[in-house]
Structures are given as structure tokens and as C-alpha cells.
Structure prediction request, 124 residues.
Amino acid sequence: QVQLAESGGGLAQAGGSLRLSCAASGRTSSMLVTGWFRQAPGKEREFVAGTRWSDGSTLFADSVKGRFTISRDYAKNTLYLQMDSLKPEDTAVYYCAGGRSSVVTVWASVYPFWGQGTQVTVSS
Prediction:
């Protein structure tokens, strides 16, 4: 099993920045990809960004492309989501998800490992 723990959420103003962290523990060797998802009240969970650990390849949702970036600390098994130019519509609970797939996928059902989520609120 893989355990994931997100941190770094909070309140930001529109145009501001936040950095989320996702720390992985357990059998991390079985986790080939990690994705970030978010869920706003009354909406379905949606894919935000993801990366493949083997080569660092990334995938971003169109809604965050150019504003969000991913970085990773292999020694700490930690993934970061840097969120810049935040918008009120970025407000949601953000989840880190780990998967065994060899490619990053936007489908939440493919990821077996999930963190508890961290709240991000962007005020206008």
C-alpha cells in the first residue's frame, strides 16, 4: 500500500500563489504516476495535473496550463504543485492520487491511492 499526505492548502487572493505538497510513504515503488485532482462543492472531481516518476513527464488540464507547475523531490518521495495566478474558480479541495499506470491519466478511477485532501480557497 501507498500512503499519501497533502499539505500546503489555504487561503489566497486572486492572482496569488500557493504550493501544495504530496508526501508518499509505504510501497512507493509501486506508484508509477501521481496526479492532482480537485473537487469544488457540487461538482465532480476533476483532473488538474500529473506526472510520471520515471521520466518526469507531465500533463496539465487546459484550465491550469501555464499557471500550475509540478516539481518533485525523489529523495523525499514528495511531489509539489506550484499554483500561480490563482483564480476564484481554482477554489476546491485538492487531492493527491497515486497510480500504477505507466502513463498519466485524467480518470480518477484509475488511481488506487488517495490522500485526504487539502482545501484551497481563492478570494476575488
User: Anything to note?
Assistant: The chain has no helices and eleven strands. The mean pLDDT is 96. The radius of gyration is 13 Å. Residues 99 and 112 are 6 Å apart (CA to CA).
